[in-house]
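ingest -> fold -> write
write: protein_1
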Amino acid sequence: MATKEKNKKYCYGTEENKKFMKELSEDLLAFGHKFPSPGGSSFYLGDDGTPMPEKGRHTWITCRMCHVYSIGHFRGHEGSDALIDAALRGLKGELKDIKNDGWYPGLNEDDSPMPDKQCYAHAFVILAACSALKAGRPGAKELLDEALAVYDKYFWNEEEGLACDTWNTEFTVLDPYRGVNANMHTVEAFLAVADVCDSAKYRARAGRIVDHVIKWASENEWRIPEHFDDKWTVLLEYNADKKDDQFKPYGATPGHGIEWARLTTQWALSTFGEGEESKKYIDAACKLYDRAVADGWYCDGAPGIVYTTDWEGKPIVHDRMHWTLAEAINTSSILYQVTGNQKYADEYATFLEYLDEYVVDHKLGSWFHQLDQNNKVIGTVWPGKSDIYHALQATLIPYGEISKSIICNAGNIEL
């Protein structure tokens, strides 16, 4: 990545950068206020923050909005507590399957439940409950206890040290597919439990998942395999015939390599502190991040990080997703802090410059969720602006305590 002198508002540690991040943060929190449906579950938000009921009301989005307004609570954002409580009402009410246990993936526009039971959604229920508990909201502890019990019963495999992916709605048939994405958000959720509840058990579980992913990546030139069978055999050619599958795309996902680098660093520092044991994990995190950025950034004639590549690092899906950029902002800042390597600070500045020019919607608020190869806004995968989770975290994590979940230090971040 070429370096050039940057505007100070993009440079890590400057007062101008902190001011920029604070403005972005406040804009995002203001943008998301219209998410609650009458029952509490989250509407998918449109370009201007207006609900899109035709998109359904998803559990994972509801959880994300509960989490971000729990952060808002600690940031002093007016109205946050009522928004947390609305999301909790949805998670304890209409999104919960009282017959079969667990949580539906979401509800359709006609209020019918979406099928199956997803590890991904249940990991986010844990995160939301942790965040609401930290914010002191009524009912959050009970929700967390239930979410952990359901997750332990159906998704966590203690022998493997990994989570399965999808059951049928009744929890009677387990899909043979196994995936890394659900395990990534499980690590995020388990680290939050470890921090909020002071639980060594969940921190150790997160580490077991991290170790698996590092091993798989190290055997694959630091590109993370995403798809597996029920024996955890790598399926590198999974969906080779439908490479742009919306939920299980073929190949490597640079954004996930970047996000895993951040979570690996957080886990290592929270477990080992700054000792020698952490260094090998931080080294692995650098390899994950460096590979992802080398493969994905500005690789097709235009700035931005492509969504997927093949196993040689050649781009497949050229679209730029906002969440990938958010994670690049997070991880470049963290690796700069833990390594002192200036290249990470330079990349942080480059990512923020790109964010400001192409991704922030300076007219309607929030961030555009999907751009094409030419950095034009499109909505083939992400029409509108579904939620503010990745974007909000990217305005705060760079200045938070690296070893802790963001919910545990959101109130102490000075911007």
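write: protein_2
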Amino acid sequence: MKRVLTIAGSDSGGGAGIQADIKTISAIGCYAASAITAVTAQNTLGVVAVEPLSLDIIEKQIRAVLDDIGADAVKIGMLATPDIVELVAALIEEYQPPFVVLDPVLVATSGDVLTEGSAAEAIVKRLMPLATVLTPNIPEAERMTGINIHTAEDYDTVWQQLHHDGAKAVLLKGGHLTDTVLTDTLFSTKESFPHHYTHTRIDTPNTHGTGCTLSSALACYLALGYPLSRAAALATDYIHEAIVAARDLHLGEGHGPVDHFFRLR
């Protein structure tokens, strides 16, 4: 069984963060281990509070997993402070996991800011060059590059900037555009052309945790041995099907979760 470690924040509502990661990793058939970086109080309506954990307990969680269980891939999500970013980067350099999927969790689906500005800068400068692939949504890519994205035609400019700053590969998620067809695009230094993954947009409020779910799925498929372009195809298919399955789900009054275990049903 392939082992996937998620380093991210906890979501009390269960739709995003560590909870979504563990559900995704388990649903795809890998073994999920976790290191929690922050505890959030949130639900489908938004984030009530965020409390980062101490550097000591974050480090001990990561070392406890990697020293004993190990990891075939690591997914990194919410890192709330520059010190946490530096710690995680140092541990990635020390342990050298085969694959690192970096989801720069800066803003929640509800619009609440989860990562302070200096931490976002540290993610770009310190952690992004260590990642196998980066998975930003459009607001996150705009914040990381300073480039406004109006259409998919702007993606190449964003990739060039992120690559200049150290990114080896970027799966840019197109969910924030208003097209009826949603396009996620993979850029990589190992590919001569970008790969486009298209799906019909689903009219549903249940999109909480989609970024966490996609990045965890991508980490799983990389751990399972798929090349990056194929892993991205499988991961984008997985999140699309999870959204479809939860289209009419009624949990909470805001942005509900996707259905991670749709295949079991």
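write: annotation protein_2
The chain has a mean pLDDT of 92.
The radius of gyration is 17 Å.
pipeline exit 0
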